[in-house]
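## retry 2 of 3
previous attempt timed out at serialization; input unchanged, resubmitting
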Amino acid sequence: MFGRKDAKKAKPKKLKSYVWRLAIVSGGKTRTIKLFGGISTLDELLVFKLPLKKGDELYVVSIDRRLGYEAFLESSGACYEKNGNIVIGEDGVYDFHFGIKTVGEETIRLAFSDETSDELAAIQKKNYNKKIRHKIVDGLLTFGHNLLLAVLVFIWLIPIFWLILVSFTGGLTGPSLNSFFPKVWSGENYVRLFTDLGPNNQFPRWVLNTLIVSVSSTIVSTLFVVATAFAFSRFRFKARKGLMNLSMIVSLFPGMLTMVVTYYIFQYVFKLDSGHVRLIIAYSAGAGLGYLVSKGFFDTIPMDIDEAAKIDGASTSHVFFRILIPLSKPTIVYTIITSFMAPWVDFVFAKIILGSGATVYDYTVAIGLFNMLQGSNAGDWFGAFTAGAVIISIPLTALFLAVQKYYVGGVTGGAVKG
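## retry succeeded, writing output
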């Protein structure tokens, strides 16, 4: 036995587990095996049982550096040390021990002579070069990935920055392409939106109309989506699978295909005169088809909760409103955001549903800002148009930032099951 004479006494201390690479030279060929293990105190040893043959030569190889060791073999065979390595005297299964060495205040696993064989040095160099290559490749991939993201973000942000800068440009008579930054800074475009009201500008009224339509559509759509998801997730009935397949097929068709038909149904079948009521119905009537993400989230909530509540006397409505709804805050927030965004920024659908009979007081923000630039008004109202575009982006940005953590949870949680 050799090697634990200089090990110092120390209090028990927990150590991490290690992966040892052991190189065995047998018959002129080198094979490398991995030994997984760890020790809990300073006084313990790692012991590995290894089947070895006479003449095998053992030494330890690490990817980072050579791991010297205090090692000894307990066996009936004659084993001896040669050039810092251990040579096996007889065939058999040997207990190979790794020991502990204390140097100053640091406890390490190695205490061995500086002598190394040429073969070991070659393996060390190969492993070191491999590690360096991996680091270089990983560094280049990370740099390229970050550079690509930076370029895409820069391209995406240029129009937004330009819009904001133009909105603060004073004395603007149309789009100016001579300078990216304003030559005259002013907030007159924002003031004009709320003070210069007339046939071309009813911005406060447009915002109010859009807010009413968006909030109403969001409430109705969220109720439809959550109720549909709850029904498909919790109940089992004969037509369940067929309805799910049918709803998925129908949702594949874009809503723009039905715009004209929807207008004629509202105008001549139901004879609805209120354009805002039309928009609320149009935005929310088919919302239940978007139940898949919410259903996936409901599927992650164990059925045991429902059953336990029903044993205690809770009805299905109580389970839904008092248990599942509070637990489903992420997916509900996700549904609210997606339901609010569509009517807040929509132009094409709102333009068709409102029809040609809508007055300037009936417009939503998107339609109003579009009409602001029609005909001879384009140059005079361009600055106010950019200011209006900046203002209507603020509520969406604030809403998203406020509930971002719930939004991410709703998307990822609903993607687990479906």
